[in-house]
Amino acid sequence: MSGHNESILREPLITGDNITYAKITDDILGPVENKPNKAWWIGFIFASLGALLWVVAVSYTFWNGIGSWGLNKTVGWAWDITGFVWWVGIGHAGTLISAVLLLFRQNWRNSINRSAEAMTIFAVICAATYVVSHMGRPWLAYWVLPLPNQFGSLWVNFNSPLVWDMFAISTYFSVSLLFWYTGLLPDIATIRDRAVGTRRKIYSIFSFGWSGSVKTWQRFEAVSLILAGISTPLVLSVHTIVSMDFATSVIPGWHTTIFPPYFVAGAIFSGFAMVLTLLLVARKVLGLENYITMFHIESMNKIIILTGSIVGVAYLTEFFIAWYSGSEYEQYAFINRSTGPYWWSYWMMMTCNVISPQLLWFKKIRLSIKATWILSIVVNVGMWFERFVIIVTSLHRDYIPSSWAMFYPTWVDVSVFVGSIGLFFTLFLLFLRVLPSIAIAEVKLLLKSASEQAKLKQIKEGHENKEYVAEYIESLEKFDSVKQEEYAKI
Amino acid sequence: MESNKKYWKGLEEYNNTPDFVKNNKNEFAEPLPIEDVLNEAGLSTVTPRRDFLKALGFGLGAVTLAACQSAPVHKSIPYLVKPEEVTPGIPNYYTSSFNGQSILVKTREGRPIKIEPNPNAGEFNCGTDARAQASVLDLYDVSKLKAPVLKNEETTWAKIDSFVKSELAKAQTGGKKIRLVASTVNSPSTNAVIAQFIAKYPAAKLVQYDAVSYTGIIQANQNSFGKAVLPKYNFDKADLIVSFGADFLGTWISGEEFTAQYTANRNYKSLENKKMSRHIQFESGMSLTGTNADTRVPVKLSEEGPALIALYNAITGQTLPGGALPNNGTADKVIKLAAKELVQNKGKALVVCGSNDVSTQILVNAINAAIGSYGTTIDLDNPCYLYAGNDAEFNGLVAEMGRGEVGAVLFLNSNPVYDTIDGKKFADVLAKVPAKISFADRADETASLCDAIAINHNYLESWGDANAYEGYYSIVQPTINPVFNSRQAEESLLTWADAPVKDYYQFVRSNWETKMLPALGLKWNDVLEKGVVKVAAKPAAAYSFSLSLAAVATSIVNSSKALAKGGDQVELQVYENIPMRDGKNANNAFLQELPDPVSKVTWDNYVALAPKFAEKLKVKEFDVVTVKGGNGYSIDLPVLIQPGQAQGTASIALGYGREKVGKAGNGVGKNAFPFISFVNGTMQYATNVTITPTGGYYELAQTQTHHSFEGRNVIREATFKEYLKNPAAGTGKSEEGHKNYDLWDKYEQPGNSWVMAIDLNACTGCGSCIVACNVENNIPVVGRDEVRRRREMHWIRIDRYYSYETPTGDVTREKEIAKLEDLDHVSVVHQPMLCQHCDHAPCETVCPVLATVHSSDGLNHMAYNRCVGTRYCANNCPYKVRRFNWFNYWNDSRFDNYLNNEFTQLVLNPDVTTRSRGVMEKCSMCIQRIQGGKLKAKIEKRPLKDGDIKMACQEACSANAIIFGDANDPNSEVSKALRSERIYYVLEEINVKPGIGYMTKIRNTDTTVQA
């Protein structure tokens, strides 16, 4: 294998010594094959209480009507669609990591794609619940599907962005699920092979008879690539279409051509933040520091700076265009955002999304796990406010001043949102218990070429350029999972 | 023969054993053990396999059958004997009158469901006000009594009669007085009944009082001209109107009629003839009339008298003392200007005053005489009979009762415990009367203290007549059989008087047939058909004023000084507002939810304060304050900041704070009647109070919370001078035009194209269209809390915007207004806003399920059954006219003020479906009326004519501000109106192609006189 050595300049993707294929399997399947620890139980209790709150709040809404939310004649959407867009946005990182980074051969994605994809699926589920629950008559939600029917062959309105939305979200969900599940097959087979009794039977069914033959692997690779190809446009299309819910309207503050790219950037921004929020904890609790390394964290932070800056530019562009358009309604909408009754939400958004992510330019912050974790939450708070600002502050003061109104959430609004977070974490924690949170097969792929021990061996073989080696060793300083003293000797 | 071969199924059949014969009759040879299975023992036994299968089969079958019934079945039963005049689905119209106003009552299958103005009423056909429109709901009020009540127990009419007769006889023989207390009675038949009653009981006397009194004007006319009448005012003959606190477009005497007269000189037809009247208003509280004035000057209540003296002096050149306005330079200036203009417009001018003070009204008479109003704009010879109450007489009654001289008192259409100067005292003295009888339809504040409640019919169940003006009579006829065990008050009186004719129908008919009809050569049926009878009007003579005004001026100055106490004393005005008026209809949910035309507040009254004055009192909007009068009466009410309110004054609406009116009206607001004071022989509606904050906070339910139009093109206005130069002034139309590009292809629109034109110069903002629309379209009443959440369901609303006059032009933007120091000079515009039926409707493109679509005749349809309730259409509506059913308002116990019982549901218009929760709704352009009109034309085999179809809002409008019709017919009224240069479309620039054209608001602010 020495002919396939990776450049010593590349930072290792797996750290630690004595990492073997067996150890990888053991490490990653630890949470799946053992009883849950205390941390998991605490998390699960909180999350499931949240999920219960969601059930209560949504049932209350269904029983009493949408009137139990704080909406009014002027503001017809608020926390509901804010929550919907927020969740769809969060889902985006998963697809980007699994599909786009795969196509670009970014091997570092191998350790994080599984969790990110799971997150995508759960986030889209949360988003989809909003689609149904915000309807006045949710029991008729299927009417937005172009189903053959006996209502006098009523059809849907293909002009309506909500119909596009329905297509976008359902396509996105099915493709993501398929992609995720395909990737899971070899890992489920691994669990199957190690399990006994009923567990073995169950995993056996879900592994679809994976045999691990060369032909299977070859087909697996081919399918993964094809699915990556299908998913890639979805990264762009889903949030583009979500943004069209607003962009195709006539409401000042919504009617903007900048929305599609701006929404996509925002979605990736929030998605990566959510991946960080989840994995920084999971890494520690599940002891996966060797597989999700500082390199991964730093890379994701870099993406956050980039997308955060794109979003910032978009905010400024909106303001410029509002002024440049000469349209008084447009101008008022933006002045009202920043100085009107909801000024605090606008500045909350600006601070969280534009100003605070700039701190990541500092390497120290970028490499601090605590700072990163806090910033990842700040970003998602900011992204929630971004959607709130777009939806509520545009609606609450649109064209006719007599109808201007304020929106005040009720306990049900808040509970549905907080509950959806509970639902999300419940699903995610269950996922950690039954499926490997890191793609075992894909990580194993990296062991021989991109792991720290492989590189150390390379160095010890002494064929590498001394300067490069020095640079490599220097780059290892940031890793919290590397024994630095090993390198002091060299 | 082969077929006769008989097969047998077993030996039993072959042998035909008796057992077999017996069992063969049944379907199953062996009896099924159903009883065994279903009784308790059977259920607890171990079920054998076959029983299990049976039970399974039965269960499945039963569940299937039970599941087949998808919804509860409401049976509609056809008429067994069909009444001749009732055809299901076809409405009948009957003439009647409401408060002297001639109306048509629309009934469907025997239920009155809608009130329309009577087109036969000629000059008195002035639309209908909100009260008339809403009155149909009162018929179906569940808070009414269902049977007469004697000593707090339901009873029979026989018992009531014997009780009342014996009590009346006792009073009569005991030398005690009998008093019939009524609000003004102008019905000739009722008066004849009362005459018969008095003939039987000579101790009886009719005491008339009005909750809001016009005694001042009546007595002033007696004093000045020897005629104790309320004159007929002709605003249509006035080119210049100067009003001192008279809300003549709203609550003063006869608002609808004055609105029709007033707008005749200001609407688009008048403007096309280059004619527009001018209107100057001096007032303290912002009234509906004040919002329509060309020039409005806030004056304190104490300045009203001096202002009138100043005006008199300026017109006549005399020097009555007390005409100085040292603290109100603007008023002083405008008075001088007005005087010049009045003199210039001699014979075409009118001065009115809302005061109930005799001296003040004498002075107004002098001014009117000086400007030649009598015989032109004021007609004393054909007076108005709507109000004839006498304040002093009422006070005399209280004294009599207090002295124990009254043996029996009867209350007809009156509730003095609630709506008089001192209800508490009245209740106290009432206790001293041995026999107390009320004709109220519910146990209201007065009736609940009475011994007997002889419940009266609703007017829609009654016979009767009205005589609103000299020579103008209208009929009241029943449109439904009495729903409850009520009896018409007149019939009760006739019964108690042992009159020969007790049946009131016979009585009314013979009264007309003997006294009125022969002279006119009319038959009874003609009257029923037309609803009105007019006797030729007498010529209106000119009257001159020749009395000395010295004493009058002294009295005015003294009253003014008494009011202007200064210190912590605030001048308080209590007034009637448009929805509640005197509070008689406080249980009407439509009226409670009708926003006040000026403040847009529903379901409450409040203390209105000027912004700067509130700052001075250190109170903010919605702070609860204690208002305490000189007589010690105090109430806690929230503050409303009212631009245009005179500094140092406060206003509180009457008609609130009812305690015993019913579910909807009980405890709404606070009672302000006790703030009335009795000065110089009349009730005065201005008094002194102190206002102190309580520290509480109470949010009023307003339908509009932003009050400036931010300089937007939504409102376009011009002055009359600009209009004369360029009729298109202010519309934003430019000479070169503007090229529009469409995203959509143009479609041919053959047939009809329904559109509307709304004249902002005619609309006074009164809101009767809102109630008319509510009744016509079954619009839910949502209650105070839901209005606070900004969820009222009105399909048509009236947007009211304030802008502030400054030397450099009007300020309309919130942020600039915040910087202004002078917030007194407000100009107001009212804009009816409803679905614009856009040709490029933004709502239609975004609906995912095609629940809102365009029709071929230009309407934006809403298919409730298809709506899933995403609310995207409402978000995307630039006019924000779509309304969402947040709850099942018409069938949800939390909204228990309107339709939550089967009885009140009878008011629903069967042509319009009620909407379920989760469904969007909005103005349908009364599509049921359009379809009905088309159908009628089709049945009559004729093309549809312009004017065949009228919208509910349009029909109710006294000002004719709403014109509806077919844009494809170039000769239709609406087409002509839309060709007016004043037409503009709201938010034209976003190219949604709205179907409703608005005509610019024109203000006649330029004066021809140089000050």
From TrEMBL, chain A:
Segments crossing the lipid bilayer: 39-63, 83-104, 116-142, 162-184, 222-242, 262-282, 303-324, 344-362, 374-396, 416-435
Alphabetical keyword list: Cell membrane, Membrane, Transmembrane, Transmembrane helix
Membrane found in the keyword field: yes
UniProt subcellular location: Cell membrane
Bilayer topology annotation: Multi-pass membrane protein
Keyword check for Membrane: yes
Main location per the UniProt record: membrane
Family in the record: Belongs to the NrfD family.
Matching PANTHER family: POLYSULPHIDE REDUCTASE NRFD (PTHR43044:SF2), PTHR43044
Protein name in UniProt: Polysulfide reductase NrfD
The organism's taxonomic lineage, starting at the top: Bacteria, Pseudomonadati, Bacteroidota, Sphingobacteriia, Sphingobacteriales
From TrEMBL, chain B:
Domain of life: Bacteria
Segments forming domain 4Fe-4S ferredoxin-type: 754-784, 858-887
PROSITE patterns referenced in this protein's UniProt entry, alphabetically: 4FE4S_FER_2
Residues of the signal peptide: none
Gene3D superfamilies recorded: 3.30.70.20
Cited SUPFAM superfamilies: 4Fe-4S ferredoxins (SSF54862), ADC-like (SSF50692), Formate dehydrogenase/DMSO reductase, domains 1-3 (SSF53706)
This protein's name: TAT-variant-translocated molybdopterin oxidoreductase
